Amino acid sequence: MSRARGIRRVSAVMAVVGCVGVAAACGAGGSGSDAGDGAAASSAPLTGQALVDAATKEGSLTWYTSYTDTETNALIKVFNKAYPGIKVVTQQGTASDLTARLNVEQKARTFKADLVQGDASYIQLLLKSGALQPYTVPDRPTPPQSLKMPSGYANVDAVLTTVIAYNPAVLKKDGLTAPTSLEDLTKPQWKGKFSADDTAVNWYESLVGSIGADKAKSLATALGANKPMMSESHTEALTQVQSGEPAASIAVYGYLAAKFAKQTPDAVAFVNPNPLPSSPDLIDMVAHAPHPAAAQLFMDWLLSKAGQTAIRDISGRISLRDDIAKEGDAWNPAKWKPAWSNPSADTATINGYQADLKEAFGSE
Questions:
Q1: Which CATH number does the domain housing residue 199 bear?
Q2: Has residue 338 been placed in a domain?
Q3: Among 78, 335, 358, 360, whose CB has the most other CB atoms within 10 angstroms?
Q4: How far apart are CA 256 and CA 236, in angstroms?
Q5: Is residue 320 within 8 Å of 326, Cβ to Cβ?
Q6: Nearest-angstrom CA–CA distance, 142 and 16
Q7: pTM of the model
Q8: Nearest 5°: phi and psi at 323?
Q9: Is residue 300, in this structure, part of any structural domain at all?
Q10: Do residues 246 and 287 both lie within one domain?
Q11: Where are the alpha helices (DSSP H) in 62-142?
Q12: In 3D, which of 52, 29, 27 has the Cα closest to residue 42?
C-alpha cells in the first residue's frame, strides 16, 4: 500500500493530536513563513566535521517515513557510501499512521524516532501537537511561498502532484478520447470508467485554491455523478489503470505516473491538469530525538544535491532544488501552474473538505 492519500483518516489522527507534554509547547515555533535564512530556530546546530564526528559517535538514527522499504533501502545505501559509520533504521507506514503513532509515543514519553517525513498537512498536525523540534537544513530546496510553516520546519524533500492517468490500449479499444482535463471525465462516455479518491483532501483543497470553493464542489459533484470507482491508494489506482480496469484515474501521483508511463507506455499515459494539484512533502526532526546529530546529518544529506539526486533517481519524486534536473513531463511550473494545497488549514476546514468529497462521490 502506498503512502497516505491526502488527509486519510482525519478524525482518527486528530483524536491523538493535542499537547503531548514534550519540550516544545503546543503549536511550537510560532507563526509565519519559514524565512529560509538557514538558521535553526533553536540553539545553533553543529556543522562540518564536528557534526559528522558527533553523528558517527551516536552511530544510528531512526526515520519514520512513508517512502517504501525498497526506496529507503536504496537511499540508505547511497547515504552510507558517504557516511558508513551511521546506521539508519526505518519505520515505514502511511503518513496518517505514522502521525498517530508518533503522537502516542510522545505522549507516553517513549522517544524512539529522530526524523519524520510525510505530507505537509500531517507534519502540520505534528507541529501543532508539539511533537517536533525546529531545524532548518542549510542547503535545502526553496519551499513554495504558499507553505506557511514556522521557521525550522519547511524542509521540503519532494513535491507530490495529482494527475489523470489512463490506459491508451483500453481507450483505443473502447473508442474513448484521451482526457485532457478533469472536466472531460464528467462527460457521459466516461461514466463508470475511471477511479477517484474520496479522502483526497489535498487534491480537493488545491481545486478550491485554484478555482474557488463553489466551482470545486460543483466539479467534484459532476465527477461523482459519473460513478467513479473508489481507489484505496495512489499506487493501487495506477496499477488498476495499468491492468485496464478502470480505464483512467484522477487519484494518481505524477511521479508514479511518469515512471509507469516509461516502463509500460502502452498501458499507462497521463496528463497534468492545469492548474496542477501540488503538495509539498516534508522531513522534520522529532522532539526529544535520541540521535540529534545523526538526524541533522541525514537531513542535510537528504536535501542536498546528492540526496535529492538519489531521491529522483531511486523513486522518481520531484525535487524543488534548482540544480536538479526535472522530469519534464511531470513538473514544469511554466507550463502547468502549481495549485498548492494548504497544510495550515484548520481541522474544521479539513473535515468540511472531507464531507464535500464523500457527498460528491456518494460514499457518506
A1: 3.40.190.10
A2: no
A3: 360
A4: 11
A5: no
A6: 31
A7: 0.82
A8: -95, 15
A9: yes
A10: no
A11: 69-82, 95-107, 120-129
A12: 29
